[in-house]
Amino acid sequence: MLDSRPLLLNTNFPPVQRNQLEILQVNLGYKCNLSCVHCHVNAGPTRTELMGENTIDLLLAFIDQHKIKVLDVTGGAPEMNPHFRELVTEARARGVEVIDRCNLTILLEPGYEDMAEFLAEQKVTITASLPCYLEENVEKQRGKGVYSDSIKALQLLNRIGYGTEPGLSLNLVYNPVGPVLPPDQHSLEIDYKRELQLRFGVVFNQLFVITNMPISRFGSVLMSHGQLDQYVQLLKDNFSLANLETVMCRNLISIDWQGYVYDCDFNQMLDLPLIVSDKSRIHIRELMDRSLEGNPIVTGEHCFGCTAGQGSSCGGALDG
Known about the structure:
Blueprint: H1 5-8, E1 23-27, H2 53-66, E2 70-74, H3 84-93, E3 97-102, H4 115-121, E4 125-129, H5 135-142, H6 146-159, E5 170-174, H7 185-200, E6 206-209, H8 216-224, H9 228-237, E7 252-255, E8 261-262, H10 265-269, H11 304-307
Parallel strand pairs: 1-2, 1-7, 2-3, 3-4, 4-5, 5-6
Antiparallel strand pairs: 7-8
């Protein structure tokens, strides 16, 4: 696989500093039942990296120490980590909002048939990837049969109250198919809600529009087609200074499956660790008694992806 990392590190992106920490985003491992083209984690069925129980215990201690408000759990398919349910249950017992970055199809896999009910019992917010409401575009990114399974999973979630009942939020995530900026989030949400309701009776709460980052698997595809420089220039040409105030890295840290800390999930995939003092790599156990407020954030050319146009974060567009 071609590596876009060296081309992204030399940047003139403006300096950014941290605000108060509120969100802990945790990658529970790279194992996944899918291998999506746009995946910036390079996740797949053959990956074996999974967070262990000792690190899970450290996460819970960190949540207690820093009074974390939101635990944002990702992967791979985070549900495939054997400690997923323990982490979710313990975090919810502490009153922490838990977001599960779900690929939907995992809910239909053998061994995970009761996962949807578990998530509902714990009142976990589900943020699910559905890169388009059209079958052709979804299968171009995610593989044959994924669209049908995703719709079945959404219908299952609707049946148990997701998208309709209080405390059972169901949000969908859109990614563009190619090297283009995503359309307006509000307008696309209207289209998604109309089409999914008419075609399948599916309802959901919000659509999050996320810009594809020129890293990992997607970055490799861009490089192989000679489009990396062009795409990065597109991001830079559409830079919006206003988005710099609300980029997600200001109040979030990203933890990898081994417990090492990064400013965001994208930096994690580029192996650009959070920098504290003179340490080149820091583990979550070393931050138990330390505030990160005011700490500089490590940036690269990919950061223009979060600030281009309407902006982009794990919670969708930044401009509302």
